[in-house]
Every structure is written in C-alpha cells, then in structure tokens.
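Continuing from the previous page of notes. For each protein in this section, the sequence appears first, followed by its structure tokens. Read the first protein now.
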Amino acid sequence: MHWITSFLRRPPIGWWDLADILVVSIFMYEVLKLIRGTRAVQMALGGCLLVGLFYGSRWGHLETMNWLVRNMIGYVVFAVIVLFQSDIRRALAHFGRAPFFRYLADSSAAEDTIEELVVVASRLSSERIGAIIAIERQIGLRNYIEGGIRLDAVLSYDLLQSIFLPTSPLHDGAVIVQEERVAAAACFLPLTVNPRLSKGLGSRHRAAIGLTEENDSVAIVVSEETGSVSIVVDGQLERGLDSDGLRTRLRSLLLQRHEKSPKPEVQYT
C-alpha cells in the first residue's frame, strides 16, 4: 500500500504537464502512423521483446540473461541505423513536411506540380498513351505505394512521360504522387464494383473510381482508346477535360483543400 500512498501524495498536474503529455502523445502517434504497414513494425516488436526480456530478467534475477540483453542493446542500435537508414531518412523528411511547416512554405511547389501534370496529360492524350496518376491528399496511400515500385523521385514531365511509354516496364499500373514527388509507379489499384457504371469504361477508369471511393485522393486518367483526359474525385468521373479545365480542377482540389468545392455529377456513360 506504500506505493499507493506515495502516488496520491504527488503534486497536482499543471498545464505544462498536460502540454508535455500532449506533445509526447502526438509524437508517438506520428511514429506509429509512419511505421504502420512497413518492415519497421517487426523491428519495433523485436525492440519491445528485448525490453521485456531485460525487465523480466531483472525481476526473475536471471543474471546471465540480463547481462546478455544489456550487452546486445548497443549493437542493436548500430544495426538499426545501418539496416534502416533509408527508412530513417524518409521519417525525418516526413516530419519536415508536417502541416506546420507546410503553412510556412508558399504554394509555388504545388503550382509547379500541377503544371507538370497538365503538360504530361496533354502530351499523353495527343499520343493516345494510356495513363493513370493518383495524387495523395489527406488520407495516405501507403498500402498502394508499398505494392508498387518505389521511386521517391522529383515529379517532372520527362519522368512521367518515360514511365507511361508502352515500352517501359513500369507503364502498367498507376503512378502515385505524394507531397509533390513521384512516390511509386506500377501500383495496382482496387477496381470499383459500382454496377451503374458504363461497361465501356476500361480498367484504368474503374481503378481510378475504385481508389477515390475509398479515400480523398485525386486521379487523372488518360484513355488509350480515345485520348480523352478525365479526373476522378470521390468516385465521380469527369471526362473530356482540356488543358485549361484540368488545370482549373487541380488547382481547386490541391491548392484549396480547406474549401469545399461543388461536386460534379458522376458520368456513367
């Protein structure tokens, strides 16, 4: 009962204590969200196992096990740094792109991204090369990124053009754009099961509709048969966009995320 008495005698919690708890909670949440669905999860479970063995050996007076775990910890830290250096860089870059820092930056990067997307869509349309580009917004697309070929490259017209060339090994599947960068290519998206859609729609349009039905991403689709450029938002398909129309829609969706734009009627034919 002594520990209960000592706990009750602790000083009252102040505003700074609550702020400290809030900051730590947010940090832990972001870390867990960052490693979710990656190989770092297994590493975290292994770390929890080592911690459990350390305290369990102390509680059970297992001196040999305790000595072994204590001497392993230093080597494990170096092993983590070496094996997961790319994941650590991505994590630091993720925290550097947090919403707080986005407000401090101007929208020139987003404008450049939109212009690159418009140019490549127009070029692919004129050559009738099929393509699908998914743009991540608030809801992450990590599970689809992990299923494709990771690139993490600067978004440019030349890169997207080369990806969707019929001779390219990456032209099948979708390109996913994340934070103004090409996160992955050759990503396979879920097809919609909406029975009201026209049977004339191909797999690219159905994949774009299926993806945007599940999250708030934006998808650009270029038809291989007709060269028509479409944009898909919230499972709704807008077809036959020219360069100016595509640019206007992308600006309204990517530069004004906090404003609710009217949803156009879905086209089923």
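Done with the first. The second protein uses the same format. Note its length before scrolling.
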Amino acid sequence: MKIIALLLALLAPAAFAATDDAKAPADTTESVRAKQDLLWGRMEESIGTIVRETDAVVGVAILDLTDQRAFYLNADAIYPTASTIKIAVLAELYRQHERGSGAKLGDLYTVNAKDGVGTEGILQAMSAGVSRITNRDLALLMVSLSDNSATNVLIDRVGMDNVNAWLAQIGLERTRLRRHMLDVKAAQEGRENTSTPRELVTLLRAIHEGRVFGKATTEEFFKMLATEKSSYIPRRLPVDLMIANKPGSLDAVRNDAGIIFVPGRPFAIAVMTTFAADGLEAEESIGRIAYAAWSYFDRVGKSSSLGRLVR
C-alpha cells in the first residue's frame, strides 16, 4: 500500500501538468489588441496606397460596429452625394411608417405622367393615371435600380424638410438633401445634395444601433438596403455576404456607402470620390478599398483571440 501511495504522489504533479498543458493559455486583452492593431495598421496602409494611386479626390470612413474603432482619411471634406443621399430618404420613410404619422410603406401612389425625369427608369415607363404602386415599391425601385423618378416621388411624400430635420436631429451638419434627383438647375445654383464620409457612417451607425427605429423596422430597413444592385463596394467581396449599401454617381463623382455584415464583425464604410478624371478607375478604387477593409474584419470576425481560424 505504501508503494502505491508513493507512486500516486509522484504521478500527481505530472497529471496536473498534462491537464494544464492541454489548455491554451488565456490571451490577455492587451495581447489580442496588439495583434489586431498590426492587422488594422496594414489595412490603413493598403487603403492609403489605393487613395494615392487614384487620380480623384477620395474620402474614406470605416467604422467597426463592434468596438467602434474607426479609420478616417479625408473624411470631413464635403462631397456631392449623388444617389447615396437616398439612404436618408429611405430612413425617413421608415421613420414615418414606424411612428404611424406621415408616409406609410403600404400607401398607394398613382403614377403621374409628370413623374418622369431623365431618360431611364421603371416608374416613368408605367401607365400614367392607371398604374398604382406602394411606397415600399417606390423604395425598392429607388434602392435596387436607383430610379430617380421614384426617388423624387418619395422625396415629395416624406418631405425634404423632414429629411433634413432628422439629419440635424442626429447631429449631422453637412449631410443635406437640397434638391430632387437630376435637378441640374438647382445644382448649378449651389443647391447640391452633400455629405461627408464620416457623417455617412455616423448615420449608418445610428440606424444599426437601433437609435432610429425599433428592432423589426431596423431589420426591414437593412433588408431593403441590401437588395441586389449594381454597385462598387461588393465588386471583390464574397457573393453570399450581406451588404446593405447605396452607390451614387455623377459626372466626376463616384460614391458608395453601407454596412458590410461580416459574420461576427460588421462594419460601416463610406467612400466618396470627386474631381475624378476617370470614373471607372474611381469605381474600381472603391471596390479595392472595400476589399482591404473586409480582409481585416473577415479575419478578426472568424478567428480566435490567438488568430486561429475557427469555423
């Protein structure tokens, strides 16, 4: 019995050591942050290189919706929004619908021959005085096809002043809806729709955090904004990734803003370009910047604190 007891005493420390060795050492918060800092720094360098290689004036804002870390580059300059301002129009529609006052998603609208602007769009191809469409359908046309006629109808239905009052309410000073779509005369007079990359991600963050609508409406809003469309942010990203965004383009202007719902690490991004001599290059640059950002969030979102890929 004494021999057995002695053997157990000798083996016990080894057993405990084996148990301890089988567990990975807990990584400290500082160590985890240091690793992420390294990856974040590489992302910033990559985006800086892309911006320098682009002939346009480029502004970038990227916001981690998990820990609020942000990257800003030329992000407070004011840019023409082009169709990215439609995010604000869409938000005001959902705000009024949820409050139960003003425009509702299910409200019907009879197409008017005077609705048409430009030379393209589904709405102006519908039978005037006969075709009826809901505000939700108008919003779908605005988001998916960037239908400017549908957008102008929605602007009138929710009210331009209401859109701007809400933007001011959430602290945005440079994001304003000042004209209808394709109103060149208004733009020439200085009434341009404007924003900054920082303010666009601030707007998206407010909605994502549930400070604008309730949970159900927030989910429906982003589902609408994620409707498939031709845009720049998704060009290099996985096709199965949920991306709720709205691009915009004008002569010498290319923009895109939205939330990329990376599993475990969603982030908001806004890239605005102006004075672009080559619009196609500006579009490609937006896609490259989005990919550089996604590379960081994808790795952090699906990895353990030690950096191991966990599926």
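What the second structure shows: The beta strands are 57-64, 70-73, 79-80, 108-110, 132-134, 194-195, 243-250, 253-260, 267-274. The mean pLDDT is 92. We return to this in next week's lecture.
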